[in-house]
Backbone:
């Protein structure tokens, strides 16, 4: 194939947009698979005879394995063709969904989620580096926005459809429904992705080298705080809406759909307006999403107010990924796979800690305490980022 040839030589005069679209669907399935328990938390807990907080750990266990996989995948893959690695990760996602859907008990559920974590860590660690090879440098922000459009699709439809179908057919049927879509994505990967031979063997010294750069380390910590704030809140959104806003299943599904559809606005805006220095935008996710969480704490008893805050939160949720991955592509272009591994590890660690701490606060105190914890993390992120200039590579 002509496209494969151009990418193999590194010249890439033509953008492989079909491959970018297959990556977008993969992102949609990763997000849907990872966070589907958010919309099904209560019925899953009942079906597995566990507490809501314990079932929330099904998200944290995938995060734990994603952290480990993201740190070792680029090194363990060695000189393997990156297309083969992505195909293998997508196959693993399919197996994970089958295990979760058929889980007879909580232990099997956690095994399935652990396998998903490996897929998440491996896929995300390579995603941005692969996008940087599929399109010319000038098109990277637009390609990232298109890929993260898959996140918007998952956020828009996975949670509300999962909540609705879960109420009609049971939560297991929701996970079974995802398996043929992932199988189709696997075939698309095999057809659309060009050959992506490894440029050089990665090792941990490259990662340690990045961590020695003060601007990159500050950015990594700021990203962790931003995502930690977001998912301390998002993981336990359904219990909040049930207990504080007091919505029924139909209203819950509508609110989750609104949150997800707003993600299309965030993806469109980030792809259209993100250019030049990303510094001024780095604190925007924590500022807006933390503000929305605070608004829910103060006015969450109103369905109308909750809808407004969730729409704003959802728009920034998808934009956050594009903003931070663009920062990574601009400030670690000399080691994109190592930087991708560190970024994914940091993000997944923050999601893991958010789910764990949020669950402990929920079970030990109240859902309000969980949301307060989210606001505190957002405040720490804003303070660290400041103007954003200290997170940029020196000229």
Residues:
């Amino acid at each position: 194939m002509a496209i494969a040839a151009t990418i193999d030589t590194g010249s890439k005069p033509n953008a492989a947009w079909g491959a970018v679209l297959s990556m977008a669907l993969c992102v949609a399935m990763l997000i849907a698979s990872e966070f589907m328990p958010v919309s099904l938390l209560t019925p899953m807990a009942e079906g597995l005879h566990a507490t809501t907080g314990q079932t929330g750990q099904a998200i944290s266990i995938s995060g734990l394995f994603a952290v480990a996989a993201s740190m070792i995948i680029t090194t363990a893959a060695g000189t393997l063709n990156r297309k083969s690695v992505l195909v293998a990760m997508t196959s693993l996602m399919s197996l994970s969904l089958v295990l979760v859907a058929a889980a007879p008990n909580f232990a099997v559920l956690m095994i399935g989620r652990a396998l998903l974590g490996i897929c998440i860590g491996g896929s995300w660690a390579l995603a941005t580096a692969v996008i940087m090879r599929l399109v010319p440098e000038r098109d990277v922000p637009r390609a990232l926005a298109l890929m993260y459009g898959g996140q918007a699709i998952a956020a828009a439809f996975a949670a509300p459809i999962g909540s609705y179908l879960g109420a009609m057919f049971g939560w297991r049927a929701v996970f079974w429904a995802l398996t043929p879509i992932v199988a189709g994505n696997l075939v698309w990967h095999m057809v659309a992705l060009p050959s992506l031979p490894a440029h050089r063997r990665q090792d941990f010294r490259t990662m340690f080298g990045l961590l020695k750069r003060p601007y990159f380390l500050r950015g990594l910590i700021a990203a962790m705080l931003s995502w930690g704030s977001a998912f301390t809140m998002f993981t336990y959104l359904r219990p909040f809406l049930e207990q504080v806003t007091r919505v029924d299943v139909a209203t819950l599904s509508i609110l989750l759909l609104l949150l997800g559809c707003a993600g299309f606005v965030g993806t469109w805006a980030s792809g259209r307006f993100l250019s030049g220095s990303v510094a001024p935008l780095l604190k925007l996710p924590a500022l807006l999403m933390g503000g929305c969480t605070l608004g829910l704490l103060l006015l969450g008893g109103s369905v109308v107010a909750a809808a407004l805050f969730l729409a704003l939160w959802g728009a920034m949720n998808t934009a956050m990924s594009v903003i931070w991955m663009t920062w990574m592509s601009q400030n670690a272009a000399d080691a994109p796979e190592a930087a991708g591994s560190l970024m994914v590890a940091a993000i997944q660690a923050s999601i893991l800690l958010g789910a764990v701490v949020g669950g402990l606060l929920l079970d030990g105190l109240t859902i309000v305490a969980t949301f307060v914890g989210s606001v505190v993390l957002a405040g720490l992120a804003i303070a660290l980022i400041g103007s954003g200039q200290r997170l940029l590579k020196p000229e």
Notes: Residues 1-13 have pLDDT under 50 and may be disordered. The radius of gyration is 20 Å. The chain is about 80% helix and 0% strand. Residues 116 and 228 are 20 Å apart (CA to CA).
